[in-house]
Amino acid sequence: MIQSQPISSTAHILISFQPIQVTTPHRSNHHLHVVEFEPTPVMSTYGLAFAVGEFELAQRHVGTFPKFINIGLHTPLGRSGEGQFALDWIQGCIEFYQDYFDIPLKMDKLDILSLSSHVPGGLGNWSLITCHESEFLLEPAAEDDIEAKILIARTVSHLIAHQWIGSLVSMDWWNSLWVTEGLLTVLEYTSIHSLEPELDMWHRFVGDVVLKALEADALRSTHPLDGDVQYSEIKEGFDVISSGKGAVILRMCHQYIGESLFQTGIQEYLKRFSHGTASSVDFLNLLEEVSKKPVRALFDVWIKKSGFPLLKIEDFECYGSTRVVTVVQEAFLPETIDSNYRSYLQRASWIIPIQVSLARNPYIPVKEFLMEKRIQRFKIQDTNFHEWFLVNYT
């Protein structure tokens, strides 16, 4: 059980991740009182949060009596009206994730604290989310600003997903941070696409996430997703590689095993390791278990190695309605890297899930295979000489 320090004024509001159990007067100072909270569930200590201050409250209920969740959005004084857009998204995301994960929200309440001074992106503490006011409050002048609304939607969907990913199940050490941060990023786009498909979030994913991850991973300062992490390096791990490249790798896995099996893998991950910890190996093994595909061997290469491959179509031949295509993989080599790192990349190779589609229906692959060599040939059946084809790794 957590017992707060005495607080000095009844005008202040005390918020924690558990509901208040009892409030008693301070033994020696009648101006003060002591607040005790309900016992905590088994959880990671980094998910603990509490706050004391003067806030204005906007409320919402999710679900139906007697099982409903009290949502409280705490804002600076005079600004609770600006939180209605965020409350709509909070409600929608809770309902979406409860269905997607097949697990109800574990707490009976969820508080969100919007502050004028806070790190960007917010903190998904269990049952007490904290964030910067610009990421949850929609000012009247921004009512028609689609980018401001998308920022709020992304922040909400990310932090609500954190109530399951990273809270219900935590990583066993910081080398598995990419699973938590990568999944949260993928789920941002998954939930928003489901709730507001006209926003076309998966096209935005390319510019918001993929290109930024490629840019960061092309630098000499990049690092493997899953490597040795010392105590002094923990803070450095919260970067575009963990969240961005992690998301891109998981999105590639999503495409490789299919949407339904990817969702099943996440559900099993949350149920099997509930109120505990898991590693990236545990997560990949579960995806392999549910999909019956070599997920672990394939993605071990991607998470243990820096950089990324560049695919080139070197040659193709036509034999009637059949094309024989030669594809070559090589590491992407920025011009500015030093000779030692260039030598390392020139020796690198990946196992790459390849999809091929034709002009007649570019969104439906006609061929899928794993590229396991530096140079590999494949055939495309039932094509004509003038028809273009698209090769992409998923």
Summarize the structure.
The chain is α+β, with helices and mostly antiparallel strands and 394 residues long. It is 34% helix and 25% strand.
Characteristics:
single chain; 394 residues; alpha+beta; Neutral Protease, domain 2; Immunoglobulin-like; 3 domains; four-stranded mixed beta sheet; 9 helices; 16 strands
End-to-end Cα distance: 47 Å
What kind of sheet is the major sheet? 4 strands, mixed
General form: elongated
CATH homologous superfamily identity of the largest domain: Neutral Protease Domain 2
Helix percent band: 25-40%
- Count of helical segments? 9
**Strand segment count:** 16
Order of helices and strands: EEEEEEHEEHEHHHHEHHEEHEEEE
Polypeptide structure, described:
The protein is α+β, with helices and mostly antiparallel strands. The chain folds into three domains: 13-161, Neutral Protease Domain 2 (Neutral Protease, domain 2, Orthogonal Bundle), CATH 1.10.390.10; 169-304, Neutral Protease, domain 2 (Orthogonal Bundle); 309-393, Immunoglobulin-like (Sandwich), CATH 2.60.40. It contains nine helices and 16 strands. The strands form six sheets. A four-stranded mixed sheet has the order 5-6-7-8, with helices on one face. Strands 11-12-15 form a three-stranded antiparallel sheet, with no helix packed on it. Residues 1-10 have low confidence and may be disordered.
